[in-house]
Design goal:
alpha+beta; Rossmann fold; eight-stranded antiparallel sheet; binds guanosine-5'-diphosphate
Amino acid sequence: MSIRVHALAKNLGLSSKDLLAKLKKLNVKVKGHMSSLDDETAQIIREELKSKPKSKPKAKPKPKVDKPASVKKPDEKKPDEKELKELQIKIPLTVKELAVKMSLKPTDLIKTLMKMKIMATINQSLDEETVKKVGEEFGFNLGRLPTLEEEFLERHKEKDTSGKLVARAPVVTFMGHVDHGKTSLLDLIRKTKVAAREAGGITQHIGASEVEVDGKRITFLDTPGHEAFTAMRARGANATDIVVLVVAANDGVMPQTIEAIDHARAADVPIVVAINKCDLPNINIARVKAQLSQHDLVAEDMGGKTITVNVSAKTGQGIDDLLEMILLEGEMLELKANPNRPARGIVVESKLSRGMGPTATILIQNGSLKVGDVLICGDYYARVKSMLNDHREQIKEAHPSNALEISGLTGVPEAGDAFYVVEDEKKAREFSLQRLEEKRLKGAVAITHISLEDLYSQVKEGKIKELNIIVKADVQGSLQALIESLQKLSSKEIAIKVIHSGVGNVNVSDIVLAAASNAVVIGFHVGTESRAQAAAEKEKVDIRLYNIIYEVTADIKSALEGMLEPHIKEVFLGRAQVRQIFKVSKIGNVAGCMVLAGKMVLHAPCRVVRSNEEIFRGKISSLKKFKENVKEMNAGSECGIAVANFKTIRVADIIECFEIEKVARRL
Ligand code: GDP
């Protein structure tokens, strides 16, 4: 439903011209009095115009910087339980703009910001969090109006289901344990099903491929494993319709098989199982199926619903069946799209290539793309100069579920970024700049995922109803015990859900899954792999390591009650790798190191990691640049490091230093 501007003006007892002026002030973009406004916008405008006279009894001929009576001074008592005044604004906005919106003097706003320890100048942009906080100080509940881009995208997406929908090809990803044959299967399918169209020779991959079986198409994404799959999902992109879980018949279900199952499930993507290497002697397929059923993948011949196909990438056995089953699963999903609309989809891969500039492999999820179209792609945009299909042939037009490589981008987008076609380059540039500006602002406020500290407040605010947990333990027995005691902690307010569990150290895959599913990682008698540590720091995933089951449950209980004691947190500073060992009189062994990330800091606490395991914890007692003592060394530089009381340092050891931070409990 919508209403035209002139009708709304009549409703409100205003002239169209007056309403248009007011709309402009409210940042609602309309062309003229015949433009229509959607219901929600109209409602906001009604409320906005209604609330004005209340707060400003005497019209508003005065300059807007005057403070109306109803606006609270920040020094006054807290707005107690008094209702906050609703106000919709576009974000980011400058201090000046915000002052105008709240009818304040900019200096008053700056003073209050200073009290909140935010130093801002009048023309500085503010991010959403700051705006909300400072708004409350003045008695406002500030809501964010959708950005022009968001509004545009909303309209774009509405077209997804309008128009004539046609069936589209399923998009498939192979996942499974390393060496179980994902690459071999994909290569074989590509070779046997695609070769007919090729002029011969090896095709260079674009990160995705399409095959045709009995006139029906399937698009395969070459994601190397479930980490990439979930990393894309963490960015909000679910490209895959069906996961083919590859399990080698001779090996059976392995740790990464379970990871893959959990990743696919967390993404709500159906699984077709390919039992591979069926050409090998002495294999026991029934055993593999029994193992799978322990993970709720019960094969059809065992009375379950999971499609399983016995295949061999070596002999080609079962490949046709597998493709047929993928198509069947695809049909059941009733995948549809509207080719007669501008394209949108996601980035599968991207790179900066010599001569071509930034290029990206994109998957069209809806609509059609033509050469010459302008599209926004992540933070960048392009007028599409050339499009290559998966055989690197130039094409002029592409349709839903097609994967293709495009060039002409203004920068390199990230895998998982969304793209969509806009009407012209001007709009693309505008959105792109706006995004880059927002990113710059957000840079200061990093993304965070759930942590036990802020669990309580999030539950109270109704933000979460489920606590997702990933559990890693040293042995299967304690894993089971831990999961059971965790599940008992579920309450009416919050359900505890173990989305993945496994034996072994916390690894990157755990962090990626935690980031995508907003989960906390709990390790029991295990450590964290260094790559995982780095990923957790980047993604702000809460990892908690324990040695006593009771402590795990006690911590979660306290977190649920908002009574968690402050905990000591290690904040990563830097990582260096030992390249050489020197003997230095007085100091002893000094490790000649390369700083790999961050910075190494003299006297900082540190740990020594060997083969992904922490073997020592201490302090950096000496830091040298050649012979000179220094306080810090940055990434990329070579330095000498001595770790106090640690004599057995070896080449290839990793030294990580960190800061200790006490995290207060937040209520
Ligand atoms: P990925 O790590 O899952 O991608 O596994 P690869 O495709 O790289 O395969 C790992 C190894 O298993 C390679 O040496 C392959 O040649 C071998 N392999 C893959 N599929 C089969 C199969 O069906 N039968 C046999 N005998 N070997 C296979």
